[in-house]
C-alpha cells in the first residue's frame, strides 16, 4: 500500500528509477496533446514489459549523475487534474484497455488545497497494448521505447505459454522491514505465482549466488558459489518400523492465479548492507524466467 511516508522513504533512501519504477514531476501532467501522449506511452510500456509503478508528483534531480534519483515532492493540482481525468487519458488512448490499473491519490498538505501525488500501479499484461499513434512501447532502462515486430509477437504469445512470477513473505513482516532493514536476521518464504492462464505442470526453481552472497545467507547452509533447487514435486512416504521410504513422487500442478511455496531462506542484515546479489531461475514446461535481486531489493 502506497502512503506519503513510503514515498518520503523512497526519496530519503535515494531509490533509483528502474524497469519497474518511474518518477514524474508535476509538469509531466498537462492538457497538451504531447503530455497526454507521454502519459499513455509510459503506462502502456509498463504493461507491455513486466508491470511497475509510475509516481506522478515526485521530481528527479537535474544534476548530472543524479538524473534518475528522486529529489523532492512536486505535487499536482487535483482541482485541474483529477484522478478521473488521469484514468480517462489512460483508458481512451491505449488499446486494448489495460485491466486492473490502480491509481492512488495521496494528499499533500491541507485537504482544501487539493495537492496530490498520483501513484499509478500497472500490472504486467498478457497481451500487447497499442497507443493511439499506432505504436507499441516497452520499458528499456529508464525509458519507454518503440518495440520491434518480434517483441510485439512475443508479448501476444504470452497467452499461449505458462507465466510464473516470484513473490515473498517475510518474518518480520514487510511493513516492519521497510522501516527497520537492519534486522539481524530476515526470514523469507519464496513463493511461485502462476500469473498466466495456463496450468503449470512442471516447475523447477534454481537459486544461485557467489561466495560473497553465501556468507550472508544463514539458511539453508551454502558455501562458495552455490545453487539450491526447489520444485513442485511432492514425495509420498511410508514408514515401516523405524525406516521411512519414498514410495512415489508426483508434480503438484499450480493453477492460474494461485501460488505455491517453493522454499525458505534466511539472510543476515549484511546481505542488505553489502548489496549481495541472489538470482532465481524459474523453469516451466514451456518457459524460462530469470530474476535477480540485489541488497534491499529483496524486501521491496
TrEMBL record:
Which protein are we looking at? Schlafen AlbA-2 domain-containing protein
Pfam family membership, one: SLFN_AlbA_2
InterPro entries per the UniProt record, alphabetical: Schlafen_AlbA_2_dom, Schlafen_AlbA_2_dom_sf
Q: Would you indicate the residue range of the signal peptide? A: none
Superkingdom in the source lineage:
Bacteria
In what residue span(s) does the Schlafen AlbA-2 domain sit? Answer: 17-147
What organism is listed for this UniProt entry? Answer: Postechiella marina
